[in-house]
Amino acid sequence: MGSIPLQRETDFRSSAPAPDRPGPSVVVGTSLPGNSLAPAAARKFVRAALADWTELGVPAAAGFTDRLADDSVLLVSELVTNAVVHAGTAVELLCRLDDAPPGESAGALVIEVSDHHPSRAVRSEQTRPASGTPEYGRGLYLVATLSESWGITYRPGTKTVWARLPVEGVKAVHEIESYASEHALQRGLRAAEILAPLPKRTAHDMEWVNRGALTFLAEASDLLAGQFDEDMVAALAGQLLVPRLADWCAVWLEDGSEGPVRGDLDVSGARLARVWHSSESRLEELRRVLEKEPPQLPEAAGSGAFPIPWPGEALAAGAGSSGAALAYRLVAGGRSLGTLVIGRAGLVRFADEVTGLVEDFTRRVALALSTARRYQRQANISQVLQRGLLPSKVAEIPGVESGLVYEPRDKGGPGGDFYDVFHASDGRWCFALGDVQGKGPEAAVVIGLARPWLRLLAREGYAVSEVMDRLNQLLLDDATEAADAAAAVVAVAGGQGVPPDGPTSRFLSLLYGELVPYEGGVRVTIACAGHPLPLLLSPEGEVREAATPQMLLGVVDDETYTSESFDLRAGETLLCVTDGVTERRSGRSQFDDEDGLAAALAGCAGLDAPLVAERIRRLVHEFSDRPPDDDLALLVLRAS
Q1: Of 354, 89, 88, whose CA–CA distance to 201 is shortest?
Q2: How many helices (H) and strands (E) does the chain have?
Q3: pLDDT tens digit sequence for 191-219
Q4: CA–CA dist 336, 230 (Å, integer)
Q5: Residue range 8-49, pLDDT digits in tens
Q6: Please, which residues have CB within 8 angstroms of residue 458's CB and are 6 or more apart in sequence?
Q7: Burial 371-396 (b: 16+ CB within 10 A, else e)
Q8: What DSSP line would sit under 171-223, residue for residue?
Q9: What angle do CA 581, 118, 376 make, to 5 degrees?
């Protein structure tokens, strides 16, 4: 990357708090695409900016250190990765260098990353890219750890995450400089070091180990403990070790069977999950060589450090022509999970203090991997269960458009909401939107009973009210025993004495209806049991309730349910939602306060069913800055 022209702050918009700025600043900025190439481009941009400021002799740049360069590159990588993964828009990157305030010796480097999807909150949950070398965000833990202060600023159409890194003060230079050209040369060398960091010396390693080993392990434990994806753990391991203790790092992961350790470990069948190098230009070549010649560890190696050959073919240029490399077996609970390899150029061997520290670190990595795999297995089971509880597709109804939104609060497990739209018999279609008063396995048991029974009763020709009566009795009988048994199993597994949702998990709020299309419209028969009432939208924008409230299912033994019928004419829209929509909170307010849902629906006049569903979904999300705390489901039916 060539030189980046420095510009005055007035040329840029900045979202860091203005009162914190001590005076004159220099600012550079760039736009990055919202894809996997953005983090690498951001890292190069920051290194080039630091190098240019150093070469130009900007006063605050005199305090630049290797640690500041490493921290700023790591921080901008985090922020840009988060913006790409969670917003998916173009990213604006701004770097500002503030001079030291009067009377103080330290300035500050401010990094700002903006995206254009402010309705999405910053999250720690990551989505795995489809292919290529993965870029994973590590949440905002590292940002908070590295920066002096940080925050999030919202503007119309833009969300900015900013962080402020202190620039260490420097000793005053002599008032008379006999050899100004020598100082310019030193600035040039310093800029070159920032652009391509040189390998750290062993003495530096020893100073760092003696000073910060316990802090490093504590922070690493906190970071690793919060990850539930094994590839994320591998990515974190590389980021934490490079360049602090190694020039490069690689992590192999074995398959999820987690078999016991037996004999020599050959990782040729394992997956090379992550390769990290302090010099990005060597990354792909190092990956290629390591994939071709993975390390082999004898059984005697245990979980300690084991020397392996230096991958000279990949690191043959310059200072990387020779060095020391160590492999560590990742073992947790007597099971082999993978292998971690580190390397440092220019060494005959690693110092014992460093090998011991890395061994302690790999134990934490192995525990994090074991936890992530258990979580992933549990999440996979939950996802399979969730797919079995919901229809594989929504039936197409002649003369009716449909729009559907379903967002469980727990992305990895079954929610309490469910839906269905199915063909009952010739000329009859049925739909249902329900909400079990419980979560997890208990709710899954009730849904697993209710949805098949709805289909069976409808196809047997029972009327809407009769279906509700029989389903109510079913929940009072079979579902009570099944749900309480599931709750008891969960409670025993969790060490709890009383199932938290056992007695009430059989309660079900349900909106159930039957559709009979005819020329010019659809005859709708509907019943609403303890559920938010459906709303009917006319082509002119008028909204009214389309049913009357009745008792929850599964509460009263002798309850008799009734239904009501109306015509859904061409251009009219029926909106059905769960309480995740109506009870969406912002402070003390709810989305449906003062008929908020009806007002939102009135603004959808003239839209087709999918657009109505998407618009309501967006308004619900934008109602609060916080993510939804309940499952969200809505069904839109529009006569065409």
Answers
A1: 354
A2: 14, 26
A3: 444 444 434 445 555 555 555 677 778 77
A4: 14
A5: 333 333 333 343 444 456 899 999 988 878 888 888 899 899
A6: 422, 424, 428, 430, 467, 514
A7: bbbeeeeebeebeebbeebbeeebbe
A8: PPPPSS-S-HHHHHHHHHHHHHHHHSPPPPPHHHHHHHHHHHHHHHHHHHHHH
A9: 70
**Nearby residues of 485 by Cβ (< 8 Å), 6 or more positions away:** none
Q: How many CA atoms lie within 13 A of 75 on its CB side?
A: 29
Quick one: CA dihedral 173, 174, 176, 178, positive or negative? negative
The letter for the amino acid at 582 is: T
Peptide bond into 499 cis (omega under 30): no
- Do 143 and 163 form a contact (C-beta atoms < 8 A)? yes
Phi, psi for 98 (deg, rounded to 5) = -95, 135
Give the strand pairing for 535-537 and 573-577.
Answer: antiparallel
Q: What is the pLDDT of residues 606-621, one digit of tens each?
A: 999 999 999 999 999 9
Cα–Cα dist 294/307, whole Å: 13
Minimum mean pLDDT among 49-58, 489-498, 569-578: which range? 489-498
Contacts of 126 (CB under 8 A, 6+ apart): 85, 136, 137, 229, 232
Cα 267–chain centre separation: 30
What's the rounded Cα separation, in Å, for the pair 304 and 327? 8
- Give bridge partners of residue 529 from the DSSP assignment: 510, 550
Alpha-helix residue ranges (DSSP H) falling in 439-520: 440-459, 464-474, 480-493
Q: Is 143 within 8 Å of 152 (Cβ atoms)?
A: no
* Closest C-alpha to 283, from 312, 253, 315: 315
